[in-house]
Structure formats: structure tokens, C-alpha cells
């Protein structure tokens, strides 16, 4: 069996030339960096709120009613102040 090479016809040569020309004009893509804003969790660092010595902790059973009421009112004010400190500490982390 004999291998016979046929010469390229004008149309097929033109197609081959256009295919090569199409690949030659292709530009290599350039790397482009884009900044993307993404929220990142960070730990909240606030000083710990110290628990006060409550006024009603030192009450005894034998104390008068007036002493007990005064101590409970004082403790109520202490708790309100303590809660405000806790709210301030947690709102600093928002």
C-alpha cells in the first residue's frame, strides 16, 4: 500500500491559516486583584465587672426590721448599679 499525500487545496489552506491566526491573537489573561470586604469575628475584650459585697449579706435574724429594710434598699441600689455596669460592658462589644 502506497501513501499518497495530496497537496492542500486553496480552501483548506485558508481554513488552516485562519485557525492559526485566531490562536495567535489570543492574549494571555492578566491577574487582577480585587479587595473584598468580609466581616471577621473578633473576641470582645472588656474588663470584668466586679461583683460587689451585697448589703443584705451581713444581715442576721436578730436585726431589727428597720435595719433589714435599709439593707435591702441599699442592696437594690447596688444591684441597679451593677446591672448598669454589666449592660455597659456588653454594649461595648456590639
From TrEMBL:
Keywords from the named record: Signal
N-terminal signal peptide: 1-21
Xref: PROSITE patterns: PROKAR_LIPOPROTEIN (PS51257)
The organism's place on the tree of life at top rank: Bacteria
The protein's name: Lipoprotein
Amino acid at each position: 500500500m502506497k501513501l499518497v499525500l495530496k497537496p492542500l487545496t486553496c480552501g483548506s489552506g485558508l481554513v488552516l491559516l485562519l485557525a492559526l491566526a485566531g490562536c495567535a491573537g489570543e492574549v494571555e489573561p492578566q491577574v487582577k486583584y480585587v479587595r473584598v470586604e468580609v466581616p471577621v469575628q473578633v473576641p470582645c475584650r472588656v474588663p470584668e465587672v466586679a461583683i460587689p459585697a451585697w448589703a443584705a449579706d451581713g444581715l442576721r435574724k436578730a436585726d431589727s426590721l428597720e435595719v433589714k429594710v435599709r439593707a435591702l434598699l441599699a442592696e437594690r441600689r447596688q444591684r441597679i448599679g451593677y446591672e448598669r455596669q454589666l449592660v455597659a460592658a456588653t454594649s461595648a462589644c456590639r
